[in-house]
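From the methods appendix. Each design record in this collection lists the tokenized structure first, followed by the designed amino acid sequence. Records were kept in a plain field format so they could be parsed without special tools. The example shown here is representative of the layout used throughout.

RECORD:
FOLD TOKENS (328 positions):
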């Protein structure tokens, strides 16, 4: 099985050939601008890795991988508008460089392009791949809505909505984890994996996706903005629920919890600094790292239970290690 970096290069070489029409110029310039920002391409490469875990890479895997990456970028374009994020991968977001209407349409076009890619796969694969793709796409949208719901106040002038750990975990599973998990499963389908192996590789991806989000929440608060490529404390400024915030609201003493709630309910010039201090007071960073490790171990158990030789699993294990040790 090939290393992630090798498959990344192979995927990138064919993905950069993705072509959009020349007109309307502003629309397709925005699409090209966003795709050229790059990215880790984790999900599409997972399609290829999931395929190669069981058999030689099927040419259809590249069309599925392209569809996954286009769908992922569609969600990022729309998420940036919803979050009013100024940066993506260290560069201007599309809605700030162009405008919100163009960013919305650019995302829509990417979604259409994703389905065009899926129409190119062999008929024998199409129905099962399309079913899982549509199910996953719907779940990602559901997760995004829950994320927005959690960030809003109950009503004007009222206090922040409290979200417990299980509610947040459900949202993250939908918004982040299922796309990674489905990418691996779609690849496994193309490789001829049985249902049991498909379930294990899906669960491996799902647990890995949760650990990935724990790390993402951690980096948003404690990471180096120069490496992370996003606004420092962006989740805090946007009043987004995160693993760190939920833990702090449960772990802080009454006075600290009241301070945190007040900061989330009101504007403060030093909001990020003050919230981070409260996170440090209850050791939220250390707690997040231990939670990440828990889900990593669960992911590894599912990987071990996939019925292929151990040596074929080494690259997926290496990918999991990379994702959870990243600084961006």
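DESIGN:
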């Amino acid at each position: 099985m090939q290393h992630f970096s090798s498959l990344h290069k192979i995927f990138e070489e064919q993905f950069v050939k993705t072509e959009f029409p020349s007109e309307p110029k502003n629309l397709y310039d925005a699409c090209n601008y966003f795709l050229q920002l790059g990215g880790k391409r984790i999900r599409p490469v997972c399609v290829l890795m999931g395929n190669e875990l069981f058999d030689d890479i099927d040419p259809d895997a590249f069309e599925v991988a392209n569809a996954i990456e286009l769908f992922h970028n569609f969600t990022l374009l729309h998420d940036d508008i919803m979050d009013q994020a100024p940066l993506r991968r260290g560069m201007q977001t599309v809605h700030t460089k162009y405008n919100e209407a163009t960013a919305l349409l650019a995302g829509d076009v990417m979604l259409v392009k994703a389905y065009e890619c899926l129409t190119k796969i062999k008929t024998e694969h199409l129905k099962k791949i399309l079913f899982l793709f549509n199910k996953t796409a719907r779940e990602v949208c559901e997760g995004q809505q829950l994320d927005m719901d959690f960030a809003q106040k109950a009503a004007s002038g009222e206090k922040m909505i409290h979200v417990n750990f299980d509610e947040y975990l459900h949202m993250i599973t939908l918004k982040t984890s299922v796309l990674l998990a489905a990418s691996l499963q779609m690849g496994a389908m193309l490789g001829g994996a049985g249902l049991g192996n498909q379930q294990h590789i899906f669960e491996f991806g799902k647990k890995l996706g949760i650990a990935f989000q724990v790390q993402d929440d951690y980096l948003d608060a404690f990471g180096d903005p120069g490496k992370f490529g996003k606004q420092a404390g962006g989740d805090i400024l946007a009043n987004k629920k995160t693993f760190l915030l939920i833990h702090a609201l449960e772990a802080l003493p009454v006075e600290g919890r009241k301070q945190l709630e007040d900061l989330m309910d009101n504007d403060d010039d030093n909001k990020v600094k003050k919230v981070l201090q409260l996170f440090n007071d209850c050791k939220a960073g250390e707690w997040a790292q231990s939670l990440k490790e828990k889900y990593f171990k669960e992911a590894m158990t599912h990987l071990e239970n996939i019925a292929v030789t151990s040596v074929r699993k080494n690259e997926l294990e290496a990918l999991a290690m990379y994702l959870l040790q990243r600084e961006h």
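APPENDIX NOTE: Strands lie at 87-88, 91-92.
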